[in-house]
Write a structure and sequence with these properties.
Blueprint (H helix, E strand, L loop, with lengths): L8 H12 L4 H24 L5 H12 L2 H10 L1 E5 L5 E5 L8 E3 L2 E4 L9 H14 L1 H7 L1 E4 L2 H6 L5
Antiparallel strand pairs: 1-2, 2-3, 3-4, 4-5
Helix pairs in contact: 3-5, 5-6
């Protein structure tokens, strides 16, 4: 790498300070060349660093908000339980999308974030936080549908 240097009044002041501190001009030039090389390498490092997708960030955020048992159920079975602020047990399923994926007492509910480009895991986290903090508000805004007998048979953990 070729680096062109020129001396300005500010450079002369820095050289004078380095000389007064006992450092030579060559050490100063080497230091400036190393600094320049680091600065030039940074954009390349940023371009080469792995890009984290919104879905990956949403999954990390969801997993960080869940307890170890909830994380296990989500990763192993595709659902997790939430205890609401009223003490009721709710099941949020990640394996069926975000519409009608919240289950409680033989009913399934549909309440999700408006907008088309929100990652699924952000929807799941919003549902869980809403249930944990304000079950009544969740019930006010959610659409409710009775679970079909066939679905009840397939999903036996909702008594």
């Amino acid at each position: 790498m070729t680096v062109a240097w020129w001396v300005t009044i500010a450079d002369a002041a820095v050289i004078g300070a380095w000389a007064a501190a006992g450092f030579g001009i060559f050490r100063l030039m080497r230091h400036r060349a190393q600094t320049l090389a680091r600065l030039q390498a940074r954009p390349q490092a940023r371009l080469m660093s792995p890009v984290v997708s919104p879905e990956q960030k949403a999954r990390e955020l969801l997993l960080s908000a869940l307890s170890p048992g909830q994380r296990y159920n989500l990763t192993r079975h595709g659902w997790f339980e939430v205890i609401s602020n009223k003490g009721h047990r709710w099941v949020i399923r990640a394996d069926v999308g975000v519409s009608y994926n919240v289950y409680h007492n033989r009913y399934k509910y549909c309440a999700h974030i408006r907008g088309g480009s929100v990652p699924k895991d952000d929807h799941l986290l919003a549902q869980a936080l809403m249930l944990r903090t304000d079950e009544n508000q969740f019930l006010r805004i959610a659409n409710k549908q009775r679970i079909s007998p066939r679905e009840t048979y397939a999903w036996t953990g909702l008594d």
